[in-house]
Write the structure tokens for this entry.
Amino acid sequence: MNNDNRIDAAEQEQPVYAFPNVKKSIAWLSFLAFFSVLNETVFNVSLPDIAYDFNITPSVANWINTCFMITFALGSIIYGTLSSQYGIKKPLLIGVLIYGSGSLLGFFAHDYLSAVLAARLIQGAGASAVPGLIMVMVTRYVGEQHRGKAFGMIGSMVALGEGIGPAVGGVLADYVHWSYLFVIPVMTIVSLPFFLTALPQEPSRNGRTDIIGIALLSAGIILFTLFTTTYVWFYLVCSMILVLGFAFHIRRIREPFIAPSLFANRPYVLGTLAGSILLGTVAGFISMVPYFMRDVHQLSTAVIGSAIIFPGTLSVILFGILGGTLVDKRGTSFVFVAGIGLVTFSFVTLIAWGNDSPWLMTFALVLVFGGLSFIKTVISASVAESLAPDQAGEGMSMLSFACFMAEGIGIAVVGGLLTHGWLLTSLTPAVAEEASFPLYSGLIILLIAVLACGGIVYSLALRRHSTASHD
């Protein structure tokens, strides 16, 4: 009797459908994950080259990354909804094809800025299908005895893709041309034959996608981002109207894009806001680095990508493991303070001595990416603790969406500030005025202030969570 129960339990742990060849499946999933995340960082180091080719300001050039991040953030939510209604196969294939189509458009029409921006929007809309759906595929179609290996392999390839992106981007842009960066994502199409045969046909389920809610929020965010780069108040007013319309809309329909109940959870809202502020700040700083190294130290794109940024992105792997261990041993507050401290120390160091040696930026980026890894670990853990079990899935998806969106906005804001330099030079202290980079030191001072705001919001989230727990 006991043996029968153990057999039944083991059978229940297996997915209803399983990939026929687990090793091959994990390999293809890892391949797809690598080439999907590679595009998040591969263009960053080439933005000064693109700005020079099109004779545009940083505020415009940074939209090449912002376009990708906005549609990537929105798509990460939309594809999750589509997978619950239509299964995984159709949304994944559509996403990969959209990703490849955007890449081909960017490569063949790279002489036109409007086409490049459109290509990045399309790439983000397609690439966003991959991260969330891969996790669902592993959960549904890989047996429990292989899931740890699958998640570990995919996570490693994601980290490798994000880390190696700046090096690949710098070398290609410097020795060939930045337009060839669009060719890399086309590799994802190679995986289609496998997924066409390996994924099962799933019946469609009843449900509806909140197209109006998605459109209102998307338009509101895009207009707000336009305001941060142009400072045209009309964009800000229209953005506020659309966001208010979105808030009204989700309260009056049955299946809204974002559940209003999440906004009643104060610790969750504050934790998500803190994560968005901090991740957006660091993303904006990282987008500044290529301009800084080009203007202050006259480095080539290849050197910036491979020798300046690459070591920092690789350090995320080590600090990610260390951060998880420290959270278990010392708690989230300790790790959060350590993360903020590492980033702040790096920023202060650059203000004081950033123009002395280019290699100081390499050291600073290692600490910045390390601090970022700590902050991400803490925000994820803290937000998860603030959610009820029935809110966990939607709440964590919204956290991911908010942070992706904040990164795109942070990149756009920094581009606007670099273009409108008069907003920064007044912040520069005497030590920086004597140096050759008052614009960048002023920007870093402003970013330190924003980091402090993020830290305050996180402390409020902790206080709210502690009060709620006692109640």
Notes: Residues 1-15, 430-436 have pLDDT under 50 and may be disordered. Residues 438-470 form the longest helix (33 residues). Residues 97 and 174 are 29 Å apart (CA to CA).
